[in-house]
Amino acid sequence: MITIEKIARLREQMKRLNLAAFIIPSSDPHLSEYVAPHWKSREWLSGFTGSAGTLVITSHKAGLWTDSRYYIQAEKQIQGSGIELHKEGLPATPTIPEYLIRELQPNEIAGIDGSLFSVNAVRSMQTALSKYGIKLHTKHDPLKEIWKDRPGAPTNKAYIYPTKYAGKSCSEKLILIREELRRNEVDALLTSALDEICWTLNLRGSDVKHTPVFICNLIITQQSAHLFIDPAKRSKEVDDYLIESQIHIHDYDSIHNFLNTLQADNLQFDPSKTNYNLYSHLPSSCQTNEKESPIALLKAVRNTEEIKGIHHAMIKDGIALVKFLHWLEQAVPTGKETEVSIDQKLYEYRASQELFIDRSFDTIAGYKENAAIVHYSATQESDTLLQSKGFLLLDSGAQYFDGTTDITRTIALGELTDEEKRDYTLVLKGHIALSLAKFPSGTRGAQLDVLARMPLWQNNMNFLHGTGHGVGHFLSVHEGPQSIRMNENPVVLLPGMILSNEPGVYKKDSHGIRTENLMLVVEDAEGLFGTYLKFETLTLCPICTQGIIKELLTREELIWLNQYHQTVYSTLSPYLDEKEVLWLKDKTHEI
């Protein structure tokens, strides 16, 4: 079926269920950013393949809401489908409740699958819609009847993640979590966030593409811990490990009954990360403490072994990237390489490194105007031949057993326009400004975000995605709770946190530019009113100098760039062959 036919079938089911609207998000029951194919309902129905977006179907209209990363991509992919694009983040764009209030009549019903929406999201919609007499029903999944070839829920095996890479054992982590629960006077904790569970238990899986997690739920009390997992995912080795770690094992589907009978006076859960159907099974006698899981912050602050591991992973990633960039410079003039072919070549270089497991996300290899699509993914139809001119934007990463990487380089393949050079230099200035930041303890990411944007703002440009996100340790490439972005986030930056630094500029039908390194928050010095922190750049890869307008860089910015390149050269050159060393020396020479 094409999208128009799928929507028509959905409307038939909606009519049968007496629904005037149905809302389809991009999430799974664990509210993950990236989901297994079984839960890609929005993608299957709309044809839009971006990771973020919500589809709303009424009896006569259809709308897709997505953020600035996907404006251009979504516009192309839903063309001719009858779906209207609503660009989130713009003042003129209505929220989904505002849209439903406009389209529906009092006493009409909007439906959702409550297992795919957070408690906060459902409450917000209920509050907004009820003022206008519109009802929200949370136990519908009409796609069951029309998605006949729907992939099954994943059943891949979970496996043990050794303590020598994790830095702390499962038992040690449970002690830390229970200490936090006691501090908050809480008896039990419910978490369904897959990265939190995998981190706590020192287990990993392969249920989600490029993200080493598995589908499960976890309840921790002061006396016990309970893992809810599909029996097909378990092995004798994992069972023995869990029993030794004093983790009780339950079938995945039994969590609702378990919650109904849970004996706890006070249970903590995160209403932004817990699906509404789980919440609806909490016993009425149990008082709830609704706040972020303590695991999120414990996980975000790297221990000594994790920091050692990410340094090792960065060296391996740097070696692979230098070998690839050296190859790319020779390959492009042959006229045979495309966005897809270079992605495969980069994968091969990374795969040859010790402890490599997988990519950490689908590579973004965007040439010229394709790079203006922030989360572009080359397809057979869009795959573009690289030429010896313009910019190639390459955003990629890897999952190594000892760390997760994420890096973006914008590479000049030949002649550039003055506009491309200017935009490239302004993005680099913002990247360097954030890299050089020193700040007092207690600083939040939102307070530093302006540093990366100011060179662009001063030239009437901006980017609408975040400047920096946390990165997991052999876990999710996008991790909270820390971030650097314009909107407020109350989480302060702490020593041991890892964040990306990735300002950019995107001009439709012209070019896209982004420069990204990962940074570690470290202590700098004692000063007036306390301790001051700074960033240590972790990523090791040359930054293309061909697009730089030197006169636009300050002396301090040039010093940072030259010192960074000196570090890249001295760290990576011992692992390269003679030709690669000469190439790297040229690409890191002082400017």
Salient structural properties:
single chain; alpha+beta; Creatine Amidinohydrolase, Chain A, domain 1; Creatine Amidinohydrolase; 3 domains; six-stranded mixed sheet; 19 helices; 34% helix
Short description:
This protein has 591 residues and is an alpha+beta fold. 34% of the residues lie in helices and 21% in strands.
Q: What's the assembly state of these chains?
A: single chain
The tally of structural domains comes to 3
Roughly how much helix do the residues carry, as a percent range? 25-40%
Q: Tell me, briefly, the overall form.
A: globular
Query: Per DSSP, what share of the residues sits in E-state strands of 2 or more residues?
Result: 15-25%
Q: Averaged pLDDT, please?
A: 96
CATH superfamily of the largest domain: Creatinase/methionine aminopeptidase superfamily
Could you characterize what this model shows?
The protein has 591 residues and is an alpha+beta fold. It folds into three domains: 144 residues, Creatinase/prolidase N-terminal domain (Creatine Amidinohydrolase, Chain A, domain 1), CATH 3.40.350; 135 residues, Creatinase/prolidase N-terminal domain (Creatine Amidinohydrolase, Chain A, domain 1), CATH 3.40.350; 284 residues, Creatinase/methionine aminopeptidase superfamily (Creatine Amidinohydrolase, Alpha-Beta Complex). The strands form eight sheets. Strands 4-3-2-1-5-6 form a six-stranded mixed beta sheet, with helices on both faces. Strand 2 and strand 3 form a beta hairpin. The longest helix is centred in the middle third of the chain and has 28 residues. The radius of gyration is 25 Å and the shape is globular. The termini are far apart. The model has no long low-confidence stretch (mean pLDDT 96). InterPro entries: Creatin/AminoP/Spt16_N, Creatinase/aminopeptidase-like, Creatinase_N, Pept_M24, Pept_M24B, Peptidase_M24_C, X-Pro_aminopeptidase_P. Pfam families: Creatinase_N, Creatinase_N_2, Peptidase_M24, Peptidase_M24_C.
